[in-house]
């Protein structure tokens, strides 16, 4: 099969195992044509083209085009990944459609600080993982601007840091690929409304341009869960026969409310209810990216990019104060009543207030603020605010070339990259009291170190951390056509990173200070073979290594002498080791005539020095530390094709994500903990072979589309995911039982069906509709064990169980990330 150099370069960098099986014919074709493909390979992200035949990519690389993304009706890129790509699933921990944890083979790209990040994400070669925490904010990626996406499997070293389980590459549109003007409007359930506009064009002088913008608003299907998304994107470029230069500008200004998990009994009473509120995230982002490529000769392509990005994030979260759950918070004492009266308050109880007649207590909270005494124990609510500012910029350059060396044809890519960033993170916590509508009314008292709780420990949840991160790297790959059927690929990347943290609250280093200077460096190799014994069938085998450095938030909570509770506090920073992932992969792929394509593969990835939040033996707090080893292994099967009017596809994944080392972790909400009595604080022991929480064993996706000529299409898609253990059940043995432990400690399996259709009324005007969760199933995408502050009737309840040796046990429950109920969306699109 005739291929391009792009395919060979993609093979070198889409895992070593993805070596191109037809590189010999590739080299011959390119040598005779005297022409290199005009493809930019910037930011260490060489990519296969979306329209490239799949049998040229022997690895399980998955691609999608703008047309496929639009036809799916997906709200954003994360929704498309969940519905359409194999081995991808979503944990909706935030319960906002733009804030999911997207996982591939058990590795995650999440917008939440503290979540272990294992996927790298790029836009036009620019890294989208943010400097502080490696998080990925899906709401900042404009869906309509995406021309293609490519999901690369494994710990490919050439995609840089954080590529433990895979890399997602997004390419944006330009005026040549997307000419013309279109406007799209949609309405849907829960007052969803959106407008999108795009325009692209080019001229004979080589200029091309593209611009798009959207505005999305909805009330959300849960109580008090609105979203407001505003995005603009523009690209201006110039090209001739040998050179292409483009500058991209994008801006987003979003307000997202994601009210998180809900306790099982409250969810059963009201599926749309929230535990506490608000949980608001405001994201502002501006990016600039200059890319260029130049065909320097018949066998040499030069490319590079320079970028700048600024992100400003505010969060405002209303939470329960867990420290109040074992306190007497109902009846104000004599001194407290006197303080309330002196301050002009009336209506507070003189006696007899208890959990039965005071479901939402506030008077002891207010009185302790007036007395400057113990609001940390008597206030049952807390408002947590954070502000993160990030600026990052960098540059990269590389070349791609063909050469004959020692009688073999080589496709070589090599380059270097430099990235630097500055981030500041500030967090404060203000006490308050819970209201019947689950909101928090603040009182004039902050957890800033001025309060001493009942055991003499200062209560200080403030964080004021600034950090500078720098990474430079060099990388290279070589795809060598050993003969017509066999290709060897070798590649590697050397990264050197520095992290410089400075604490504005406790500067100077030492106990309790976040100050620290950290350096990490490593060379990650990859090697693989690809074999194509006959037309339409190929096989591959490969090994590769990737790494990620500890983030500032992990380095800020790594001292066993100063344990902390995230995300409310950080303390101390002994050095952590890099996480190293080593991946083996093998598979075969083939084609049944002109009807269907199939593939089957196996993989095993082992994380060494994985980072885990570990319990402190005495205090019940915890800290981040390097965990010995974890393993992600599985089998992937895929079939897709087209027969007449039918377009169909099936993906199945068997995934086994397990711990492979023994470790002690906090397990206070787990029935198997070593607590002195049920409901008291305790720890659990992880043993090798236990499944990692939130990772299902089975993922099945299927779709069928009926295309009725040019006028209409109808599609039906199903996503099925098996059960997964809850966070807090890392030892996999929690059982519901007694008054202290409610819930199974896992989320059940589920299957969700979606229906969509489109009708072309005129050559320019089309209408479309989509029904999500067609059968209105109630399901959960994630679960977590934790102490609950409410009784079965939804009233706040402190000291819910009798004391044991002077300590009050908690009622612990399973909290769920409930899936959205059935919704209907309709829209219209007009192309000028």
TrEMBL record:
Coiled-coil parts of chain: none
Subcellular location: Cell outer membrane
Top-level lineage group: Bacteria
Name of the protein: TonB-dependent receptor
Residue ranges of domain TonB-dependent receptor plug in the record: 56-167
Keywords in alphabetical order: Cell outer membrane, Membrane, Receptor, Signal, TonB box, Transmembrane, Transmembrane beta strand, Transport
Primary location class: membrane
Residues covered by the TonB-dependent receptor-like beta-barrel domain: 236-774
Family of this protein: Belongs to the TonB-dependent receptor family.
Signal peptide residue numbers: 1-18
